[in-house]
Design goal:
Structural class: alpha/beta
Shape: globular
Number of strands: 15
CATH topology of the largest domain: Quinone Oxidoreductase, Chain A, domain 1
Number of helices: 10
Low-confidence stretches: none
Number of domains: 2
CATH architecture of the largest domain: Alpha-Beta Complex
Strand content: 25-35%
Largest sheet: 7 strands, mixed
Length: about 325
């Protein structure tokens, strides 16, 4: 049975549209009818061939940010899942190592496996994956907005590591999808101040709508003394900029992944000011559960971040949009 086409990246710079054959779910698996799939910088890395070795396996169907509806279940999976709106974790952790048992599935010692990078992803009409990776959404959930729950889960991981308490002074460095989602998570904690630092002053109004109390561009001298800073820019100097905003003993969470050779943090500064530094790469189950809960409660509204929705066959155009650097391009979605 073939229904529609899927995107297959054969290798760096090479892709094709191939007939899609839905995979029957095996024991413990479900098949999802994909509603929408988001594109981020890591998908562009897969296409351009500059994703780090070991973090992609060609040929591959990309797509790790997705939303959809369960259309079939395999043995040992509750039939009640059929028809439910869902999102799903990307990391295919082993579930038996010590890190997995600790809930840190993104640190699985069995090695890296992730949907859309080393396993078939969601740039296809359907996606088959283990049911244990699913997070069920409310029946009335907007599946287009829900396609952003994967980056939201990564931001949720950062927010949980930051441990922001009401009344603290908080800053976000970066105004892309991760940065704007971070503003929403942090504003829900009622900080005394929530400053956003970015390159595009056109994002100031949206940041304020999401709960920011102030906005500064990189060339403006921002105030210091913040309790917590979440860095979501991934630029060469973003980590240093973020650290400079902190008070002594402040907490820094890095979520952006800069290009190789980026300027690093000053270890002397870290020690002398006793800064607490955390990093995020992907999202463990607890962060996913937090993101879905906040979304279901109406405290997370990703829809305004979406600027483009394209059909699946326009994959190359979508990749170019994501890499254009245009302030008019926010989140780009593909619709199978």
């Amino acid at each position: 049975m073939s229904r529609g086409c899927e995107v297959v990246v054969e290798g760096p710079g090479r892709h094709r549209l191939a007939p899609h054959t839905p995979a029957a779910p095996g024991a413990g698996e479900v098949r999802i009818r994909v509603h929408a799939v988001g594109i981020c910088g890591s998908d562009r890395e897969v296409y351009r061939g500059n994703r780090p070795e070991g973090y992609v396996r060609y040929p591959v169907v990309p797509g790790h940010e997705w939303s959809g509806t369960v259309e079939a279940v395999g043995a040992d999976v509750p039939g009640a899942l059929v028809g439910r709106k869902v999102v799903g974790e990307g990391f295919r952790a082993c579930q038996v190592c010590d890190r997995c048992h600790a809930g840190e599935t993104t640190l699985c010692t069995a090695g890296y496996e992730e949907t859309g990078f080393t396993r078939p992803g969601a740039m296809a009409p359907t996606l088959t994956l283990p049911a244990r990776l699913l997070h069920v959404l409310p029946d009335g959930a907007d599946l287009t907005a829900a396609a952003l729950l994967e980056p939201a889960a990564c931001v949720a991981a950062a927010a949980l590591k930051a441990g922001v308490r009401p009344g603290e002074r908080v800053a976000v460095v970066g105004t892309g999808t991760l940065g704007m989602l971070a503003v929403q998570f942090l504003s829900a904690v009622s900080p005394a101040e929530l400053l956003v630092v970015g390159t595009d002053p056109g994002r100031a109004a949206l940041a304020v709508d999401f709960g920011a109390t102030g906005f500064r561009t990189w060339d403006e001298e921002p105030p210091g003394g913040f309790d917590v800073v979440i860095e979501a820019a991934g630029s060469a100097s973003a980590a240093r900029t973020a650290a400079s905003l902190l008070r002594r003993g402040g907490r820094l969470v890095l979520t952006g992944i800069p290009a190789p050779g980026a300027e690093g943090l000053d270890p002397t500064d870290l020690v002398v000011r006793q800064l607490e530094v955390h990093t995020v790469f992907g999202a463990p189950p607890a962060a996913w559960a937090h993101a879905v809960r906040v979304f279901a409660a109406g405290l997370l509204t990703p829809l305004p971040l979406i600027t483009h929705e394209l059909p699946l066959h326009e994959f190359p155009d979508a990749i170019e949009l994501v890499g254009s650097g245009s302030p008019k391009v926010g989140k780009v979605l593909l619709r199978p």
